[in-house]
Amino acid sequence: MSTAPARALVAIPAKIGALFLAVAKQAGGLGILAAQILRRLTPSQIDRHELFRNLNRMGVRSVPIICATAAFTGGIMVIQAAPFVEQVQATSFVGWAATFTTIRELGPLLIGLIFNGRVGANNTAELGTMKVTDQIDALRALAIDPIAYLVVPRCLAMVSMMVLLCIIGDAVAIGGAMLTADALLGVDPHLFWASALERLEPWDFWVGLIKSGLFGVMIALTSCHYGLATSGGAPGVGRAVNASVVAAAAGIFIMDYLSTFVLG
Amino acid sequence: MAARTKDPSIIDAAKNVVTDARDVFRVFARTLYYLFRGKREKGEVARQMFAIGNESLFFMCITMAFIGAIITFQTGLQSRKLLPDFSLMGATYLKLLVRDLAASVGALPLATRVGAGIAAEIGSMVVTDQVDALRMCAADPIDYLVVPRFIACVVMGTVILIIGGFVAYGSGLLVANLAFDVTPSTFNNLMYLNLGDVALGFFKCLTYGAAIAVVSAQRGLATFGGSEGVGWATTEAVVGSSFAIIVLNLIISTFGYFLVPSVGPG
């Protein structure tokens, strides 16, 4: 029989171990789902109607919220930088600094987080509801592959729409930054553009696009995996949505760090 | 959200935003009223503090550590192009972190974690008629459900964002040391920091905590349509509170720019 202090001593490593096992289990589930999706892409077996429905629902309907968020973010960025700019009289650098930060980092990250909340959570809720009401088993009974019919169109839609939304969002955020710089610091929009064009490299733009694509993959895999793994009736759907949103957000940040490090 | 099934026009969307904002303010006003007038169950606030605070701590620490590392790495890359002088990197980073980033960037993952939890919990109570049962027992759901979550979210949200700020600072220090050879003593530079920055950052933390609680609770209480509705409410809570945070950030930062003088010496 172990004594109380000994049990307490074991409890902490046991908790850490359980945490790692849980993370490993989810990561494994994501990997298997990714392999299943890739297998169905060659040769492609995609339900075209479902794909277009999801492209509209996930992408087109997200444009207003993405634009609003991006415009505010661009403004905030310039307001935060304003004291430093005034201090060192670096008005000719504002354009470059704002566009560089937006394109490489802030745009993909913020749009990824909003996209995760709006589209990822919704996707998990939908797939989870289908799972707990046995609709996925019903598809199987009709000899329709649920991965090819439900998951592949959703993943394709999320990844492509995330990249496209990121381009729109970047443009709106840069517009917001330009207006704020003009109003707050008196930086002429022409000067703003000239400074951005002079120092930006094409690679900066590609880094942003690669990042947004990676975040799209992360959100797509996580939300589909958690949705399909839902159990425990209606309350289970709520739990799955919560867990999926949190896991995808953590995944986005980890992915962001790794890609910043690798892409330079 | 009424226009869920059809494509909303711009005017419909604007109307929805106005309606949602009005509902959120209504919940906020009633929460404030019951905050001073209501009678609360003993221990409920502590329970919510544990659920909102302690259980988000691990997630927030990991997230903020990565955020700190990314910001420092990105700033380093950017400043290496202009002038290869990293001596003011720590001072600048610390000022931005205190003034804005710790609160505003940290509040987004916090909204994801906490907002989704509050909306899912209250939403499933609504669709299983537990909230109506509360009303039958003459217990106001705002007093009984929302106020404890509001208090817990304001207090623990602030605490967690401050802890997250320290974590982000630590990871930034580490990355600056490893990637750009900035010694910790150079990085640890309080030169640009003043009391106004701390006050502004603290005020932001309090505001975001309140915004997350009120927006998510309103979305939760407005849930309809069974378990699918709970999923929708969760989604709208996360998006709504993230959006509220960004709008509030713009407002507070603009006031802060004019009211809190922030230029450091030099």
Task: Describe what this molecule looks like in 3D.
The complex is a heterodimer of chains A (264) and B (266). Chain A has one domain (45-263). Helix content of chain A is 88%, strand content 0%. Chain A has 9 helices and no strands. Chain A has helices at 4-41, 48-59, 63-88, 94-132, 135-141, 146-185, 189-199, 202-228, 233-263. The longest helix of chain B has 40 residues, at 141-180. With 266 residues, chain B is an all-alpha fold. Chain B has one domain. In chain B, α1 (10-37) packs across α5 and α1 packs across α7. Chain B is elongated. The interface between A and B is large, with 57 and 54 residues.
Provide the descriptors you would attach to this structure in a database record.
heterodimer, A: 264 residues, mainly alpha, 9 helices, globular, B: 266 residues, 8 helices, 82% helix, elongated
> Would you list the SSEs of chain A in sequence order as H and E?
HHHHHHHHH
The succession of helices and strands of chain B, N to C, reads HHHHHHHH
The chain pair with the largest interface is: A-B, 57 and 54 residues
Main beta-sheet strand count, sense and barrel state of chain B: none
Question: What is the residue-averaged pLDDT of chain B?
Answer: 85
Radius of gyration of chain B: 21 Å
| Beta-strand fraction estimate of chain A | under 5%
**What global shape of chain B is seen?**
elongated
